[in-house]
Amino acid sequence: MESERESESHESADGSEERMLRSVEQIRARTAQVPRGHALLQLAYAVMMAAYMAVFVYTGSIEAGASAHGGTTMALILPPLIISSSLITGASERFGGRLRTTGRQWLAIGAFIALLVVFFAWGILGIGYPWWMALIAFAVTLVLFSIRPLSALRRMPAAEAEQQPSSLLPRPGQITTIVLGAYLGLASAVALWPTAAWIVTMIGMLAVIVALAAQTSAWGILHTGYEWRRPQWIAGGVAALLMFLLAALIIATDLITPAVAIGVGVLVAASLIVSAFLPGRSRGASEA
Questions:
Q1: Which among 28, 219, 225, 237 counts the fewest CB atoms within 10 Å?
Q2: For residues 176 and 224, is the Cβ–Cβ distance under 8 A?
């Protein structure tokens, strides 16, 4: 009898351990699915950082001239970079802050800043460097910032699309998205007028700082990033791509005229303003 009881006890313990292990695996699976959208956003931001570095480095090359550093191209590429970072920070709250900054990420940030300082000094000292250094800077920056999101995406399974009702952005999110579109569009439209470009940039960035400080407000940028769904992220990506392309063409070619800049500004503004009224799936694990 005692042996039978011991056997039943062992079987019960084994069953309990098996259930616990199965529960742990299920939790891990759910956890892996939750930050997938955020990892994709981080990867997209890594590409933006690399593009920023490439444009920045090219402005100091022999072909562009060191005087281009700090020119209107910075007024084109800095605002979307800063705003996107803030929006992604807000979006991370939907994933419980799982993708926190690690020691390796701080090292990547340090290496990026060091690279930035080296090329800045190299450019303003007038020594000069060839334009293709911009390609090297792009590749190095992309590697520095894409390793972690790529690693996260490789480890986690693809989240299954959930059939969820579509909903519009809340009114404060719509207003903030429209204002961001108008600001970035105007910054693009006046890119060929340095004085106007910097006035627009300074006023716009002051407004961004205020929106960042209002962390608990529904119209703050962080909360807007929390509410953004796929249509808004796609529109934001289109706007950033147009602005970076405009900056690169201004430096490298003579193709950009005031009319072209204004046309690009209209497209940048329209992409975000229209997206403010497009519905996206409500909160879900796989939605970015």
A1: 28
A2: yes
d(CA 263, CA 174): 23
Residue carrying the six token digits 């933006």: 48
- The helix-helix angle for 103-124 and 133-155 (nearest 10°) equals 170
Amino acid at 152: A
* Helix, strand, coil % over all residues of the chain, rounded to 5: 75, 0, 25
Q: Please choose, from the candidates 258, 248, 236, 203, the residue with its C-alpha nearest in 3D space to the C-alpha of residue 73.
A: 248
- 10-residue mean pLDDT profile of the chain (288 residues): values are 52 53 49 62 90 85 58 83 90 64 69 77 72 88 85 66 67 93 95 88 88 80 90 94 91 88 96 91 47
Q: Biggest alpha carbon distance in the chain? A: 94
CA-based end-to-end distance of the chain: 59
Q: What is the value of pTM for the model shown? A: 0.77
Give the integer Cα–Cα distance in Å for 128 and 66: 8
